[in-house]
Amino acid sequence: MAKKILVTGGLGFIGSHTVVELQSEGFEVVIIDNLYNSKIEVLDNITKISGVKPTYINLDLRDKNAVSAFFDGHKVDGVIHFAASKAVGESVQKPLEYYENNIAALIYVLSAMQKNKVSNFIFSSSCTVYGQADELPITENAPIKFAESPYGNTKQIGEEIITDTTKTSDLNAIALRYFNPTGAHPSAIIGELPIGVPQNLVPFITQTGAGIRAELSVFGDDYPTVDGTAVRDYIHVVDLAKAHIVALKRLIGGTNKTQFETFNIGTGKGNSVLEVIKAFEKVSGKSLNYKIVGRREGDITAAYADTTLANNELGWKAEQSIEDALRDAWKWQQTL
Ligand code: UD1
User: Fold this and answer.
1) Per-domain boundaries in the chain
2) Which of 104, 193, 230, 294 is deepest in the core (most CB within 10 A)?
């Protein structure tokens, strides 16, 4: 019988791509999503790609009784927990909303899992937990730095909650610390749907390329990097989605080495903002209108992953380049 997996936030950017990969690997998927930062059309678009409509339940994970009732009524073999708020700036303005959405919901899901003896759990974490790491590339052993925002803090606290829970229960968990997810499904049927003005670089670039934004601001050219602009590790969302599948299979197969494992998920390669712009111009054939402005508050100089642990333990490696990611992001943008 196919294993049944609950994907919270399964209509979101990373969630939807992961649902498609789960289905192509023969898993049965149940999505919980409250449509707070996603659209119901994504459900049909997932179905167009995979040919299988996942079960969908509109449920708010802050509703403890509803979460508990869901687990009482559905026998699932594992949970991939994406549902969370993710805008750094907004989290500074609305800290309590972020703590409730990202922490209370996590607690309710873990409690209901424990009660129903569901033990396999994948958690969406972020490279933001490292802050500006002292050494590059960043390994999983790099120290966790003081969180600069409530959003970043929710990822750190989330990992701590899982650590403590595994100590006293049968929970088996893997946290994936994502670097910078970008790109879209190669079919251009699903992709990122930023609400309002995008805060992240790649959607801002593709919207500028499409003429929706007049000009891209490059935040700072005085960083100690190759060309003065900040460096990040941009990972194709399909590569990222696949990392969730191998992590889940590791838990289901019981090949995890400890009850809570953490992996960096990136390409291992850093690209500067100007390099990303050049790569976009190359794949789109468009010249991008941009100007250099001051640094953005809270930004770090450089972050890219050492992915040795994920390569060796999960047998996973990013396969797609920044050009691939930008090509797919651009293809997707042109459908919007
Ligand atoms: C941001 C968040 C991070 C979160 C991640 C994924 C901050 C400080 N960090 O990471 O916590 O996990 O998104 O959602 O917000 N840039 C420009 N012009 C723009 C937009 C971005 O030059 O219009 C630059 C930024 O200064 C940065 C790089 O592009 O150097 C990437 O920015 P972004 O896509 O926002 O990702 P991060 O800041 O790395």
Assistant:
1) 4-183+234-266
2) 230
Q: Are 150 and 300 in contact (CB under 8 A)?
A: no
**What pLDDT digit, counting tens, does each position of 58-89 carry?**
999 999 999 999 999 999 999 999 999 999 99
Q: How far is CA 70 from the centre of its chain?
A: 24
**Residues tagged active-site:** 151
Ligand 1: nearest atom to the Cα of 128: 11
Distance CA 243, CA 220 (A): 32
Class of domain 4-183+234-266 (CATH, top level): alpha beta
Q: State the distance from the centre of ligand 1 to the C-alpha of 233, rounded, in angstroms.
A: 11
The ligand 1 atom at the shortest distance from the C-alpha of residue 178 is: 12
Q: Return the DSSP state at 234.
A: E
**pLDDT, average across residues 197-211:** 97
Beta carbons within 8 Å of 212's beta carbon, 6+ residues apart = none
Taking the C-alpha atoms of 13, 142, 93 and 164 in order, what is their torsion angle to the nearest 10 degrees?
Answer: 80
Structure-token match 């047998």, residue found: 315
Tens of pLDDT, residues 170-200: 999 999 999 999 999 999 999 999 989 999 9
Q: How far is the CA of 40 from the centre of ligand 1 (A)?
A: 27
- Which H helix or E strand runs over 8? strand 4-8
